[in-house]
Amino acid sequence: MKFSSKVKKCALSPMRKFHPYAVAAKEAGKRIYHLNIGQPDIETPPQYFEAVRNFQLPVLAYAESPGMPVLIKAIQKYYGNLGMHFAEGDILITTGGSEALQIVFNCILDDGDEVIIPEPFYPNYNTMVNTCGAVIHPVCTSPEDGYHYASRAKIEAAINERTRAIVCTNPGNPTGNVLTPEEMRMMVDIAKEHGLFIIGDEAYREFVYAGEPLQSLGEFEDAAENVVVIDTVSKRFSACGARIGCIISRNRELMGEAIKYCQARLSVATLDQVASAALYDVGPEYFAAVREEYKRRRDTVVAKLKDIPGVICECPRGAFYIMAALPVDSADEFQKWLLTDFDDNGDTVMFAPGESFYATPGMGVNEIRIAYVLKQKDLERAMDLLALGIEAYNKR
Amino acid sequence: MKFSSKVKKCALSPMRKFHPYAVAAKEAGKRIYHLNIGQPDIETPPQYFEAVRNFQLPVLAYAESPGMPVLIKAIQKYYGNLGMHFAEGDILITTGGSEALQIVFNCILDDGDEVIIPEPFYPNYNTMVNTCGAVIHPVCTSPEDGYHYASRAKIEAAINERTRAIVCTNPGNPTGNVLTPEEMRMMVDIAKEHGLFIIGDEAYREFVYAGEPLQSLGEFEDAAENVVVIDTVSKRFSACGARIGCIISRNRELMGEAIKYCQARLSVATLDQVASAALYDVGPEYFAAVREEYKRRRDTVVAKLKDIPGVICECPRGAFYIMAALPVDSADEFQKWLLTDFDDNGDTVMFAPGESFYATPGMGVNEIRIAYVLKQKDLERAMDLLALGIEAYNKR
Fold it and tell me: May I ask the CATH class of domain B46-279?
């Protein structure tokens, strides 16, 4: 049987290859501290479950293809509080930020087209772009420069006649990089000047730690045709399993194409939309507490990393990830070894090796991504295990 | 800004074009009987809402990318009761049957490839196939022959070197056509002989009215490489808003490609999976009662249609749709006129005009699809309105 050449180009999740080793380690009685996945341990606000319990309609019917008005209104209000005003037609509810990205890429990409994405980047962008027949044109950054990508020269050097869009994951996954307002303005200007879409994947918007105001590419009303914001309740409300996201854009032609996809898949889950609308009732104290918790974790991880000789990292300004270069030959080999050959009192640790976050071959070989999604005590222990592991690995 | 040539080829839902007329009719005080949409009015089993209320985990986390084991096990058991045995790896949970179809088409289709689908067919197949760069190769049927498509000569005449799959919507939407066991065997044999996938969209499996055993292409274990079953809880349990479906196939290479898509979109909504698993706890009396209700409605619609002079239709054996040819010049014009110029004591009626169910231009112009999803009394009134409407329309 023949398969699509596009899907053949895609790979399984790179995280998956360590799964058998992790299973074996657990079977051997080891305890694994997981710094490898971005699943927060923060409790989902009770508003979600209350809304679900209060749902009283006897028939669980299809919702409207563009999304339920109650949720669209909640999102409009949330952005209104941040000083951004979107019409109802500027918002399409999707099954997570993932479907939002898939729909947007499918609407704007043809075979051979290119999307500029600073690397390291979220690996699922690969499948999303490649299944459209397009390719990611990476903009290279490095741990030495703090993974800084907002340089006009760097971005413009990557633009060619096949470029259709620039993706800004802001705050960044896996780097924790946060654009300054001036950098955002510049990125938007580049998109305007070259007639490109600029897609802001802003899943981690609330997770910034310097007291700065929350940001969005949606602020740039002068670039209404260019800007697309991808949003989700997943991280904001620790509701990853809700699978509720949205596409936000003032580009009506784009939204007119996107609605074709929305209609073809009929609707997004009804209960999850109702419950996600209720999430937007949480007060600012919720965000303040979550932000404080993650900031404390970030500071712990950074302090512990700085104490490990040979580690290169900068203190990330946002999201709940940190990317670092380790003094090891291969983070991949090191991770495997941590699962097969290492333990400290029966404990070991998992992170995400860096290579899979890069499109350029050979990049990120000695880098790792740490997701600081564990409670303080576990996080400290996990970082100590990392330090002990590096020392033992290099002494083999 | 440039958009994908593939999405540009797709159209908005053809049902949408009557929406403004329906709004105007309602504003003018008319009551509209909706026979145009496949949203059942049957109550969702309480098991769904109970499972949702009983969910006690504090964090609504991502589910497993292939689907939650509790739901996969429930589906395995359901098929086991029908005499079909599937391994855990033969089932991938999806966001509705829609995502299941999208993933399968994306896995098997390249630009210029063809999918054989008997027409009239479910219009969303158009967007799903066209966004893959492929085209639907229709196999023509007509109201005069009861929309019968299972003819070896007809199907084989449509096969060429670009053909990748045959889609059997069984029971059929919009026709209500149900394949006999012999016809299923023949369709599967054609797929085997020509090295094609045969995709059974079996959303309406339970809705058959002659007391026959429930059927599935999944029975044909000798065609493990060819058969793909698309399933969903939407119609089976009147849970369209759950958006829970699945891909079922013993073709491990296909499932290996499909999992790439599943991983890229992370997971399907957690609560809806837990609750859908609980739906499979309903007993056979649930299905018997629902089947009885729809059978009564079908018989009402058919009897009323037979009484209208000039209508051509056969009694459908399954699903909850009937396709019929009306004695009007254009079902499209007639529908518009029913909304703008007709009423009987303030009442009018909507159906789905037939043209959009065909790929061949000019086909289905005087046909309509009726979804018998209204309660008996409303259904009778709706059918009387249709008869009165035809008479008045042809007397203009």
Answer: alpha beta
